[in-house]
Amino acid sequence: MASRMIGSAEGRWIRADLRARRGQALLTVLTVAGIVTALIAAATLLEDGTNPWRGLFERGRGAHIWLHTKTVPDVSALKSLDGVTDVAGPYHSAPATLAADRGRKVPISLQEAPAALPAVARPLLSEGRWLDVRHPEGVVVERSFARAIGLRPGSPFTVTGLNGATHTLTVAGLAETGDQGFYPEWAPGLAWTLRQTLTAVEPAPGRTETVTGLRLADPGLTDLIVQRAVFTLHGQVQRVTTWREVRAAMELDNRLLGLLLGLFGVAGLVAAALALANVTGGRVLTQLRDIATLKSLGFTRGQITRMLLVEHGALGLAGIALGVVAAWLITAYALGESGVTPLSPGPHAAITVGTALVVLVAVWLPAWRGGRTPPLPAVPAAPPRGRLSRLARLALLVRLPPALVLGARDAFTRRTPALLTICGVAIPMMMITIGLGCWATLDDFIRHPEGVGQAAALAVRPADLTAEETRERVMADPDVVAAYPGAELDALVPGQTRTVRTRALGTSADPYPFPVAEGRMFRDRGEAVAGQGLLDLLGARVGDRVRITIGGTPLIVRIVGRVIEPEQDGEVLSLGIDSLAAKDAVPPRFYGLVLRPGAEPGEARARLQAQGLEVAQAVNPADRLAVIRVIIVALVVVLALIGLANLLTAGALGLRDHVLDLAVLKAMGLTPRQVMATLVTGTGLLAVVGVLLGGCVGALWSRALIDLEGRHSGVGAGIGRAPTPGMLAAAIGIAIGAALLVALIPARRAARARIPVTAR
Amino acid sequence: MTTTPAIRAVNLVKIYQSGRGLPVPAVRGVDLTVDPGEFVAIMGPSGSGKSTLIHLLGGLDTRTSGEIWLDGKRADTLSESGWAVLRREKIGFVFQFFNLVTNMTVADNVELPALLGGASPRHARERREYLLGELGLTDRAAAAPAQLSGGEQQRVALARALANQPRLLLADEPTGNLDSRNTRDVLKLLSRVHRQGQTIVLVTHDARVAGLADRVVSLLDGEIVDDGAIVRRRGPGGTAGDVVELRG
């Protein structure tokens, strides 16, 4: 088909050329496919890791809007609203108290659910079984809540209704849902029961409320439909939650991840462009003679350009198609079992179309260049200049072996290809180094958690004890060095419709060791430090005064420093607990515990929990960013392959330029080994220059680049680390070794082949 | 009655720029008319501009000034693409280094011009089978050019040049890279197609090759210094060297 569309002569040539270089064509397809697969898989993992809501919501066909009403609403009126496709419920819902372990009482929300799983807003059963009319005492508990409380299928579930009556139920199963956020960010916890069980726990109809879910055709119309629904139900509606709030509650602070993905995506695309341009360019250069012959036969410039564009573009597009299929297989089979949802259409299309454009642009340039080949087959492609390069003269001066001198001369006689080769190696190497810098940064997070504000590995809540008792018990533990009283509150900031986190930890006299990157630590009441995200949000700078409102109490603080703040996109204000009003500060809500160096937080946590304390372990940002490491490894592999492919092209070109020289060298009496050394030096020297250049630039840039990422993600500059010298040396060593090996293969073959002294 | 010349060059000039920007004239005001069916050999020492001249005539290189008329139509004003279309329809080229497309088989190489000219694949195949049969290469159709000897490659190149039955066959040192036996074979083929009415312009520095032509044009430093038809008188046995007589 294609051949008929572009003329059978061109089709014939394309087929012949592809046949003649099946291996290379396959390599091109696989390289592009690898890049596309890596990009899509990385994007899928990141999206899923940072936004679990989407997957849960899609799988459970969640409702976009939940209306909470006192009485049962008019369902048919809601259903007939424009834009509403389905209605979930109405379900009864009642508040109750769950008796957790060690006598703790936890508020929960019981919600009615049918015995048959509903089609819309369907809870996703992950363990155990669903509700059964034969076992009305069974309840199904939302999974994040069950985890926090320590419930499993079969656990007793003792609830107390508002009337004080206690009912002993059993956990039948655990389920996930995209209709409310995770506990404890979203409280109270949720449990589904049968209607009859709910009525037994809360017999008074006046104490229950009714929830009704609306699934929309277009989520963008949520606000409009909420207004209409509220209007339709004439003041029945008590409150409304929408998918946006649920998503926001579930989302991780993912700006850093998003930025990193963007960086790696751009790196991947640049790498793809480089690889293709290099392969196509190299192929066209080696074919200039054939192309000239075709022109002498009557091929026009446009025909040649189109022919090359179609051939190489088709390889790239085939690679993209293969990559999309491979990524689909990976997400469907390898990742599907762990519940990862395929990438949403937006980023998917962006990756596919982006790579396609990059492929076409990368191919177009060499194709256009090929089309401009003069139709004079006899003219050799740009005669090499004969003079010795400065480097070669230097090599002669220090009396290096002749093979090295000749190789050094070859390396730089053709300036432009030499420069292209160096860039082709240096750019992937630079990106690899930057990737290693990201790796080192993550390592640094783990090795020095205090550098990212996690000096306290554990946080203890007093639970049933008084603050003083808690402090005493905690300080009695051999691993605990310090306990800082703390409170986390939401504060309103001027000009913002939402709240920001205010974290009081330690006192002004004895502040918690926040990692101050700029300015100084707070020393007095009324002083505070802030993350970059908060400074950006307020448009403030270190030294400014800001006015915030905490629980109705205004508080004016002076920001005296900027800290590294990995939480909440950096939108956190940290101050001493004595800066807060007494009502917020006394007693402290929790204690941040600093352990002695080398102590195992998990063990200390277990010991403290055994004493009846509620202990949370800090999650290192590096653990949340663990997926980045997978991406770094994948990218390093792809980039290394690209660098090597570029080198192979350079080697082939070098060989083409030096076929005649080789005959002369042999005639002059160079042994095959010396000829080989000459060729390896020719390509290898460029590779070494490229690797060193890329490594140095990457090492210099990685820190600045990661800091830039940090700044834009709200964490703040100051987190970036360059790759460790050992890591960098190993990377450079391996790269140079691999480059020399790659240069060796064609050189060895060429040195042993019989070379005709005649035609080029 | 005058016939339209197959090709006519009027005051053709080609000046290259040397690396230092100095003009280097390669062809200096050549006037040349070749009639249909004529076999013209262009001779001259190395650097006399004969290859440049034939490249200009085939549109592979652009002239600095002067006119080129092909089949009564002006060709020197054509664009590169215009020349390409003209070449595929009316001109066949044979080069010293054969210049077969390396990644295509012999059959593909010979069919390519016909396909390019818009012939159906079937017609192109028939034409290729006929030409390869004529040149004794039928059994090498599926071979790659690299597998052929120099003489065979040049015969394939000749078949390719004749694929579209061009008005004009331009040959640039077609035997310059062949041994004497292969030279003889290729020359035989050239005389055969000439006898069938093919117009040929051939560049050579070999007097024996030029001896086949109807007319020899001698070039020196880019200018025609001699242009004459040849009359052969066979000596006894005819091997000790033919007597060539030039008639001005």
Automatic annotation (TrEMBL), chain A:
Protein topology in the membrane: Multi-pass membrane protein
Keyword presence, Zinc: no
Domain of life: Bacteria
GO cellular component: plasma membrane
InterPro entries registered for this protein in UniProt: ABC3_permease_C (IPR003838), MacB_PCD (IPR025857), Macrolide_Exporter_MacB (IPR050250)
Pfam families: FtsX, MacB_PCD
Cell location: Cell membrane
Domain MacB-like periplasmic core span(s) in chain numbering: 26-206, 422-609
Positions of the ABC3 transporter permease C-terminal domain: 263-375, 634-753
Protein family according to the UniProt entry: Belongs to the ABC-4 integral membrane protein family.
Name of the molecule in the record: ABC transport system permease protein
Species: Sphaerimonospora thailandensis
UniProtKB/TrEMBL annotation, chain B:
Pfam family, one: ABC_tran
Record key words, sorted: ATP-binding, Nucleotide-binding, Transport
Gene3D superfamilies reported in the protein's UniProt record: P-loop containing nucleotide triphosphate hydrolases
Record-linked CDD domains: ABC_MJ0796_LolCDE_FtsE
GO cellular component: membrane protein complex; plasma membrane
Domain ABC transporter: 7-246
Nucleotide-binding found in the keyword field: yes
PROSITE patterns xref list: ABC_TRANSPORTER_1, ABC_TRANSPORTER_2
Molecular function (Gene Ontology), one example: ATP hydrolysis activity
Name of the protein: ABC transporter ATP-binding protein
